[in-house]
Amino acid sequence: MEKRRLGQSGLLVSVVGLGCNNFGGLKQSLDLEGARKVVHAALDAGVNFFDTSDSYGTNGGSEITLGEILGSNREEIVLATKFASPMNREKSTRYNGSRGYIMKAVEDSLRRLKTDYIDLYQYHFPDPQTPIEETLRALDDLIHQGKVRYIACSNLAPWQLVDAWWTSKHHNLHSLLSTQAEYSLLERGAEATLFPALERTGMSLLPYFPLASGLLTGKYRKGQAVPADSRMSMSYFQSRLTEERLDTVEKLIAFAEARGHTILELAMSWLASNPLVSSVIAGATKPEQVTANARAVTWKLTAEDLAELNELTGK
């Protein structure tokens, strides 16, 4: 599989990554053996980028699951996890970027993942109570200690990315290499706000929800009932299932099928066509989904294709 440089570094990640939020004990998540099949399918497909968080699953369950599975494959992958999200919302709802929190969180993640180092340690959500310099200095220390190799973030506003970039440069600290944000054929708000910040700082984008929570898989069609056990049946996602979006989905399906492809292949290859994107993070609950995601990016869209897709999606 094609590998791309992450930010302004020598770290190479597969253009399709595996999101591991489906591991670890939450409702509808995979058990250990189910997760093992997905992980090994990803390795077989050439995926080397595995993304998780200490807050995925129950009590760090996703990290625990990955730690149990990886074994001798640990050295072959780029292992990414996150900190800052509350582990127990009954005790705290704070997103914590303080030095004290980070120093404990990294030790807990290392223990759960059964590893001596984390390849990419990501600031999950910004903490308005902690100055960004404090967070960056703590992360810089972890790099010097060898516990973390590179640092990144997720869900930071564009101005926060630029502020973090300037702070790193001004204080001679290691810089954030990438950010995770929602981006897909149906969610393109990042283009106007986030992209200029990425171009200025040299950071990469790791898009999440690349399939728009399932809308870009062809699973949800206009005039058809939403499957009772699907993500779109959950209240959090129902607001995304609008008539306008379903109309766009039908147009995208027609576009893909006219070229001998599926809408999933279109969604993944469209993201991969963007030079700001280093890896498309896609979750999976079945091995065949991993294989399909990996195969999807082999479709190389032309400039004419991209222009037509802009028209279809109103951009």
Low-confidence stretches: none
General form: globular
Briefly note the CATH topology name.
TIM Barrel
Rg is: 19 Å
Strand proportion: 15-25%
The proportion of residues forming helix, as a percent range, comes to 40-55%
Mean pLDDT: 92
The CATH architecture term is: Alpha-Beta Barrel
Care to count the β-strands? 10
Q: Structural class given helices, strands, pairing?
A: alpha/beta
- Cα(first) to Cα(last) distance is 30 Å
Tell me the count of domains.
Answer: 1
- The CATH class: Alpha Beta
Major sheet, described briefly? Answer: 8 strands, parallel
* CATH homologous superfamily annotation: NADP-dependent oxidoreductase domain
What's the arrangement of strands in the largest beta sheet? 9-8-7-6-5-4-3-10
**SSE pattern:** EEEHEHEHEHEHEHEHHHEHH
Number of helices: 11
Strand and helix layout:
Layout: E1 3-5, E2 12-14, E3 16-19, H1 32-44, E4 49-51, H2 61-70, E5 78-83, H3 99-113, E6 118-123, H4 132-145, E7 148-154, H5 158-171, E8 176-182, H6 190-201, E9 204-208, H7 235-238, H8 243-257, H9 263-272, E10 280-283, H10 287-296, H11 303-312
Parallel strand pairs: 3-4, 3-10, 4-5, 5-6, 6-7, 7-8, 8-9
Antiparallel strand pairs: 1-2
Helix pairs in contact: 1-2, 1-10, 2-3, 5-6, 9-10
How would you characterize the overall build of this protein?
With 315 residues, the chain is of the alpha/beta class. It has one domain: NADP-dependent oxidoreductase domain (TIM Barrel), CATH 3.20.20. It has 11 helices and 10 strands. The chain has an 8-stranded parallel β-sheet with strand order 9-8-7-6-5-4-3-10. A two-stranded antiparallel sheet has the order 1-2. Strand 3 (16-19), helix 1 and strand 4 form a beta-alpha-beta unit. The protein starts with a strand and ends with a helix. The mean pLDDT is 92.
